[in-house]
Amino acid sequence: MVIVSNRGPVSYRRNADGSLVARRGGGGGLVSGLAPLVAGTDTVWIASALSDEDREAATQGVVEADGFRVRLVAHEPSVLRMAYDVVGNSVLWFVHHGLFELARRPRYDRAFREAWAAFARYNQHFADAVVETAPPDAIVLVQDYHLSLLAPLVTTRRPDLSLVHFAHTPFAGPELLNVLPDPYRRELLEGLAANEACGFHTDRWRKRFVASCAEFGVAAPRTFVASLAPDGEDLARVKAAPACQEWCRSFEERFDGRQLIVRVDRIELSKNILRGFWAYEELLERWPEHRGRVCFMASIYPSREGLPEYLAYRQEVEYLVERINARFATPGWQPVVLETSDDFPRSVALLSRYDVLLVNPVSDGMNLVAKEGPQVNDRDGVLVLSTETGAWEELAEVAFGVHPCDVSATAEVLAEALALSAEERRRRAARLVEVAASRTPVDWLQGQLGAVASRG
Ligand code: F6P
């Protein structure tokens, strides 16, 4: 088995003595889902070199790094920037999550044509690495939209390999995909169709892919659904460790018997962080009895800061939080607490302490936080979940659903969740844990391998 993804399990830093050292890096469901399955095995993980240190390490070929067998692919920095920032993050991510406001963007001009050529080149670099590295007859698990063009570039040279593509995002149905003109759209769909199978977190995204193939005249490959789930044992280990326990104690002190609304996210446009705070503001306006009795703590960490949209979004979030605090804070009560550094033990501690977990993305392939929270929570917390997440398909029965754009309805659902009786909270939480823990990362991996095994 070979894994291919843009972000890999490790990144390199330089030690004081000048040597390179590999560190495990987080950042999104893809790595956190795959890493525990692959660590300590002889599976080779092929990923982009994302920094100068990574690029230097890439010259060593396949290396053992912090428990992984890694081969880093060194793109020219300009190729990586255009493929990752311009095509991947600014267009494909927006298309699949339906994030475009069409008055100004996207703009397919000469710069975009150049970026698309870089995207093809980036995929070609990965193809070369797969062709050189994969053992005979290997199964190659290709992860996410960055590698949409990979399959045809590999299969023509290595017909012995079985390629399975897995999408961690939602997939754009015909109307959304129409924002991408031919020939980009065709190249994208044909690229995906050249895989032996394409997998999705939910049937909803799978159907959209099949519909887009049909609409734009591309023969769809075999498709399958395999939802990702967090590693419950790993979460339990993190929770029991001193770093997390220390945070738990500090939260007990800090929130001192108050009810707590929590969110844990990358600072990411699709996560709908602004509407979450607007809903909280409306809650405090319409139900003043919650003032002083509830806090909202958000652990949101920077992401894709090379993109102006993400920087502007972060600023808007910070400004909104300041405004809410300035408007409502009283001595001894800060309505919103914002943490913007990436600290996984702190996030786990926060998840253990919530009364209400707010997960309200505009659109999300799965959303692992919605499944992680219930597995570590100690307070029979309630999950408020966007109906536009993949997780909703599995958790609808036990979560409170919200339409991501409906700020008033979100405020009402938050109020309802905060007011739930202890007995109802217990009943829901028990079932929530059951459902959230019913699948493991191994099931997800089996789904991808099974897609190859089931070929006719
Ligand atoms: O989960 C979707 C995804 O794009 C993954 O591919 C990625 O690891 C994660 O989000 C975080 O994004 P990025 O790697 O761009 O920081």
Q: Helical content, roughly?
A: 40-55%
Number of strands: 16
First and last CA, distance: 20 Å
User: CATH superfamily name of the largest domain?
Assistant: Glycogen Phosphorylase B
Query: Percent of residues in beta strands?
Result: 15-25%
Question: How is the secondary structure organized here?
Answer:
Elements: E1 2-5, E2 10-14, E3 20-24, H1 29-38, E4 44-48, H2 52-58, E5 63-65, E6 68-73, H3 77-97, H4 110-133, E7 139-143, H5 150-155, E8 162-166, H6 174-177, H7 184-193, E9 197-200, H8 203-215, E10 222-225, H9 232-240, H10 242-255, E11 259-266, H11 273-286, E12 294-301, H12 308-328, E13 336-339, H13 344-353, E14 356-359, H14 369-376, E15 382-386, H15 390-395, E16 400-402, H16 407-419, H17 422-436, H18 441-453
Parallel strand pairs: 1-4, 1-7, 4-6, 7-8, 8-9, 9-10, 11-12, 11-14, 12-13, 14-15, 15-16
Antiparallel strand pairs: 2-3, 5-6
The chain binds 6-O-phosphono-beta-D-fructofuranose (F6P).
Structural commentary:
With 456 residues, the protein is of the alpha/beta class. 48% of the residues lie in helices and 17% in strands. Strands 5-6-4-1-7-8-9-10 form an eight-stranded mixed sheet, sandwiched between helices. Strands 13-12-11-14-15-16 form a six-stranded parallel sheet, sandwiched between helices. Strands 2-3 form a two-stranded antiparallel sheet. Strand 9 (197-200), helix 8 and strand 10 (222-225) form a beta-alpha-beta unit. The mean pLDDT is 96.
